[in-house]
Amino acid sequence: MRPESRARRLWLVLAAALLGGCAATPVAPWERGRLARWDMGWDPDPLQAAMDRHSHFSKEGTSGEIGAAGGGCGCN
Amino acid sequence: MSASKRPSPSLSLLLAASAALVGNRSARADEAAPPLQSVGYRFHVYDEDAFPDRPVIGSPQRYHVDSQQLALSARAGERETLTLNAVHEVMSGSSPWYLVPGPDRRPIQVLSGATIRDHRNAIDVALTHDAGGNDTTTLDVSYSQERDYHAAAIGAQRSVPLSSALTLGFGGSLSHDRLRPTDAILYGRIERAEKNTWSTFGSLSLVLSKYAVVESGLQLTLQSGYLSDPYKLVTVADQQIADTRPDRRGEAAWLVRYRLAATARASLHADARLAANSWGQHSVTLELGWYQELADGWRLIPGVRYYAQDRARFYAPFFDHADGRYFSSDYRLGAFGALSASLDLRKRFGHWELSAGAERYHAATRYALGGADLADPATVSYSRLFAGLDYHFD
């Protein structure tokens, strides 16, 4: 199997696993207590997330994130 | 530090920014809420595994980096928040230089003989306007400085609610980087070079239920300029020449992030990314994290990550013939994959939070997308430890 098709299949399986059976239902503001918790943030600890990204970015050939990319460094 | 010693430029920048925040605070002293919202500090120790017992020319010790991070967050207006992140890193160790074919055509790594010592200072300032209801605008400016590398970047991003459940995000950034490699004349390296990076993204986040949210986004990046590594050589027809890559690279990354409040005291994080670039590389990244709140303010956060990529079109450990325009044996352009595991432990008491954690990153050619013909001995594994302290003023 070619690497591209393997990657595509992995992605489809993952998307199905994440979204399968999850139909969006209306959620009232007073029902969003759990969604507002610290641990439900996209990056609950921005400092730690920035260092994680920096470590991986400097070792790997591809990168990408949701958000403005920011500046470069001599590590890659 | 002696009394006559002047503070470093990075420390001066940091002090100036702190002074600005303190000034802001005194100007707003009549308001009830403190302008300074939080202060955070992290100390990281990053250590790459030394080369195992195999033929190596040069020092087998690889990179070791000690990093310090400082973050401040403060109110800068009725609806504005200013955040400042500063990083200071000290790096030392040897770097992979080039590969030569061994007797059985297995690649033999040649490392830079002398230990490299360098440091990096970086600062990032962001101003966010929150119009309420997930409607935010952020402007960001950053600067990173090393002895031989300077990068300046600006960015902007918007978050706009489309409905009570759906939020649109979009933005972009531009980075201008300047290189002045050390010992350029001695080693025949390029003396000066520049590169630019444009990046844009768009995303949609959706509230799925009282317990779950999902976000999907696409990021497009275009780089132009000098994209080779001035410190690397490549063996082509038994000769060592400079690492030579195209002067443009386009990259697309598609990401999905999912958060599930699994219980009243725990949540699941699942992130995935599929990326591809114009140099012929593809990658898959899967990440899982579990945020568990324990008794007495303790939190435990285990996580795992899988990353796999295939090789760039012009990558090989070494080239028998000089066919083509581009050549690189940088292991980051080769085929490999990596498994990593992390564990964070946090303890909150009052306004303070202590944190400590570790990550183990194990990379190998056998984890690569589609496998690889020849294992690159430079593929690196590392360990990382961190400790941190945060203070929240609210």
Structural class of chain B: mainly beta
* Secondary structure tally, helices of chain B: 2
| H-E string of chain B | HEEEEEEEEEEHEEEEEEEEEEE
The order of strands across the largest sheet of chain B is 1-3-4-7-8-9-10-11-12-15-16-17-18-19-20-21
Quick structural summary:
The complex is a heterodimer of chains A (76) and B (394). Chain A is mainly α and 76 residues long. Chain A has two helices and no strands.
What attributes does this structure have?
heterodimer; A: 76 residues; mainly alpha; 2 helices; 41% helix; B: 394 residues; mainly beta; Porin; 16-stranded antiparallel barrel; three-stranded mixed beta sheet; 21 strands; disordered N terminus
What does this protein look like?
The complex is a heterodimer of chains A (76) and B (394). Chain A is mainly alpha-helical and 76 residues long. Chain A is 41% helix and 0% strand. Chain A contains two helices and no strands. Helices cover 6% and strands 60% of the residues of chain B. The radius of gyration of chain B is 23 Å and the shape is globular. Chain B has one domain: Porin (Beta Barrel). Chain B has 394 residues and is mainly beta. In chain B, strand 9 (149-161) and strand 10 (166-179) form a beta hairpin. Chain B is built from two helices and 21 strands. The interface between A and B is large, with 56 and 101 residues.
